[in-house]
Amino acid sequence: MKKGCKYGTHRVIEPAGVLPQPAKKISNDMEIFSNEILIDVIALNIDSASFTQIEEEAGHDVEKIKAKIKEIVAEKGKMQNPVTGSGGMLIGTIEKIGDDLVGKTDLKVGDKIATLVSLSLTPLRIDEIKDIKPEIDRVEIKGKAVLFESGIYAVLPKDMSETLALAALDVAGAPAQVAKLVKPCQSVAILGSAGKSGMLCAYEAVKRVGPTGKVIGVVRNEKEKALLQRVSDKVRVVIADATKPMDVLHAVLEANDGKEVDVAINCVNVANTEMSTILPVKEFGIAYFFSMATSFTKAALGAEGVGKDITMIVGNGYTVDHAAITLEELRESAALREIFNELYL
Q: From CA 129, how far away is CA 142, in angstroms rounded?
């Protein structure tokens, strides 16, 4: 076996010299290098912003969605939406471990894992799309994928179904970042707080702010409000359109006794919500953009335009122990687990 770069640059076809994620095309030849792992793929969990964009472009036609996904993978060698730039994650079983990794990884052939690196950089070959479940952004396939030496993963837990675990692991970076960013006594606003990542963030934020802090959940309608209230009765739920900054600002201020918040978390899966995240944040506060629909340009210039000196954080999908933190939320909260079982199974 030949040995490749631990970060996967040996797989890049175009343009030369870049890493796999920004590359236009990578090799999805499934003859693995000595420091790679071959995965027999069961399903893809497409990033929410990406799936939403593909679904809308396809007019909600499942066959057209299938065709678009196949087209992207055939062209790029990976599942990276050309519009959003994002990917998602996968679950599968370990088929082969490269010679250089034998004894250096805790994985063994046959283990069922969820990859915690984006599909936007993962070499992928789709042989067949068996089914698409639009309600949970899931694509069941027959195919193969490669995990680089630097790639992170989680062995699927035995105390919950793989679909439940995957639903949470797909957005594990968000609640784990909340655990790092949010402090006792603070006020926190979460946009898109009735979505998958939003509910996990709301639950974690309530834990972190403690009894003297405030968590404000911004949702679109009464149905989402009722859902979020099931997660925790300590969340102050407000209804506002996240694409309308002034509406969000007024709603958050009203819920926070007229004060701006310490931290705002963006979990919305549509574009043009940057200023709705920035405006409610107080001077020297934090805006965390987990949404893959975020525009850096709009956020940077928008904050400048309204004179906001705040720290803006790009939503890194990885933070230390993010899988453990997120799965533990489902173990701790019967309400969260019940909701996830209802919505994502």
A: 6
Give me the count of residues in the chain: 345
Residues 6+ apart with CB under 8 A from 6: 35, 148, 149, 150
**CA end-to-end span of the chain:** 40
Q: How far apart are CA 57 and CA 304, in angstroms?
A: 33
pLDDT at 136: 87
Q: Which residue from 239, 247, 250, 249 is spatially nearest to 217, judged by alpha carbons?
A: 239
- Cα 332 to Cα 153: distance, rounded to the nearest angstrom: 22
Report pLDDT for 79: 98
pLDDT digits (tens, 9 = 90+) for 122-132: 999 999 999 99
- Judge if pTM exceeds 0.90: no
CB atoms within 10 A of CB 189: 33
Q: Where are the beta strands (DSSP E) in 123-196?
A: 124-133, 138-148, 153-155, 187-191
Parts of the chain with a pLDDT under 50: none
Q: Are the C-beta atoms of residues 196 and 202 closer than 8 Å to each other? A: no
Among 184, 193, 268, 199, which residue's Cα sits nearest to residue 238? 193
**Residue 280, both tokens:** 């409610």
Each residue of 220-237: pLDDT tens digit?
Answer: 999 999 999 999 999 999
Give the pLDDT of residue 308.
96
Task: Give strand pairing partners of 125.
Answer: 144
Closest CA to 113 of 143, 91, 97: 91
pLDDT 10s digits, 178-192: 999 999 999 999 999
pLDDT score of 199 = 97
Q: Residue 305 contacts by C-beta under 8 Å, 6 or more apart in sequence? A: none
Helices within the chain (DSSP H only)? 48-57, 62-76, 162-169, 173-181, 196-209, 222-231, 245-255, 274-278, 296-305, 322-332, 334-344
pLDDT of residue 77: 98
